Structures are given as structure tokens and as C-alpha cells.
Amino acid sequence: MRIDIVTIFPGYFGVADAGGRVAESGPLGVSLIGKAAGRGDVDFRVHDLRSWASDVHHTVDDTPFGGGPGMVMKADVWGKALDHVLAAAPVPGAAPARLVVPTPSGRPFTQETAASYAGEGHLVFACGRYEGIDSRLVADARTRMPVDEVSIGDYVLAGGEAAVVVIVEAVCRLLPGVLGNEQSHSDDSFGGTGGAMSGLLEGPVYTRPRTWREHEVPDVLLSGNHRAIARWQRDEALRRTAVNRPDLIRRLAATPEGLGKRDRQVLADAGFPVDAENVAH
Ligand code: ADE
């Protein structure tokens, strides 16, 4: 997979060379993603937006039409940057690149989005700053490629860079071979579709020692009874999801196969009654 990132802060990603390749010490160079990049499974390139500014000050923003606070990033500078990135990086025979614009006004970025991006050949991220990018940039890009405006949560960051790191990490860990153990995905919180934990948050986990500061590992996990362990893990996942994300329980309750009888009993015992049809809570 090829990933291009356009930003006014290339240093944020730890750029190593003039070609925009990332350093081994930067956020994209360490851990599983760094290893995937080292193997050539992901090819990161980071570009400085200011390279496409035409004035001596390398201006990338201007005051908004219609007034209001802050500055807006210029469509002409962004347009040239995108033209260059798309022309320089054709992935032979591949579908057109997908442009991803992180913005608090975008659609929520979810595990499902991450899984679909993991199937793309080429992602181009446009990191906005200030009040965002002139809207004609996205309108123009849509005439030649798929474009997503995505938000990583209901809060406002100072720019898209941190969101790109979040998105790239969520996507790259799903690439074949990156996690090593394919099973690790299916039990993730929000983990995929169809698995035993589908639609629930992940429950608690433990490792040695069995006793730590007088806290014991739950006996069932030491029982060797795999059915009992699986049921306990689902019970715990249900309780945690009910407390932390009641919206996910409501969603599960509304799907035909979402919650079984025992699930409803566990939720009722935990103080989160779910009626047979839907959710009372
Ligand atoms: N840029 C600023 N805030 C953001 C957010 N919540 N998600 C994605 N990009 C952003």
C-alpha cells in the first residue's frame, strides 16, 4: 500500500529524506507499522504543502470569504500539491487513489472504515490546519477520485496530522501479516463482523502472576474449560459495553442475532435491562 501525506508540518511525521520517506524513529517508523514499512508492505511519503506555494513567504492560507475568524487554506496551493502527488505516484494497474481529508466536520472514522481502507492500494491524506481547506479542493478532487472527509471524534484538534497518525495506525495493523496473529483482529473491540464478540467492547485481560497485590486472576480463566471461558469473556464484554457504550448495546439489541437470552439476563443482572423487542435502557 502506498500512503502519501501532505502537510505543512512534515516534521510531525519524522521525515527522513528529501524523498519524503519517514524516519525509523517517527510515529510511522516504529512498532508494527515501522516493521511493515521496513518490509515494503507500506510505502509512506510525506510532502510539505509549502513546496507548492508560489510567493516568497510560501503562503498557504488567506482570510475567509464571508468573514469570520481564522484563515482558510488556499485551493490553488492544495490543487498543485495533489496534482503532483497523484502524477508522481501512479500505482500501475491499480484503482485511483482515495483522498482522505481529516476534519471535525467529516463522517465518523470507524473500525469499518479502517477495514475498507486496508483494502485500498493508495491513500492520500490532506492535513488541514486553521479553519480548514477551501471547499473547492474537495469538490475538484471528487471529479477525479474517491474522497472521504473523516472525523476521528467529537472534538477539535489543531490540525489533521494527529488524526492521520490515528487513521494510519488503525489501517496498517489490519494489513495482511502486520499483526502476525490474524485472530487478534476478530476479538478487537468493534472487531469485525460475525465473531463471537462482534459489536462489543473487549473485556478485561490478565497475565502472570496469578496473584498480584492480592488481586487474583478470575478462576474460570485457569479452569481449562474453553466453553466456560468463552461465556465468561462474553459476559464481561457485555457488562463493560453496557457501562461504557450503552449505544452499542442498543444497536446489538436491534439486530436479530445481536443478543441471546443469556446475554439479556447478564445485562439485566448488571442493571441494564433490555426488553425482548428492543432496549428499555
Ligand atoms: N482535525 C481537527 N479535528 C479533527 C477531528 N476531530 N478529526 C479529524 N480531523 C480533525
Describe this structure in words.
This protein is of the alpha/beta class and 281 residues long. It has two domains: 2-172, SPOUT methyltransferase, trefoil knot domain (Alpha/beta knot); 190-278, tRNA(m1g37)methyltransferase, domain 2 (Trp Operon Repressor, Chain A, Orthogonal Bundle). Helices cover 32% and strands 15% of the residues. Strands 2-1-6-5-7 form a five-stranded parallel beta sheet. It has a two-stranded antiparallel ribbon with strand order 3-4. Helix 2 (75-88) packs parallel to helix 4 (136-142), helix 3 (111-117) packs across helix 5 (161-172) and helix 7 packs across helix 8. The relative contact order is 0.11. The model has no long low-confidence stretch (mean pLDDT 92). It binds adenine. Adenine (ADE) binds at residues 102-104, 151-153, 155-157, 160, 163.
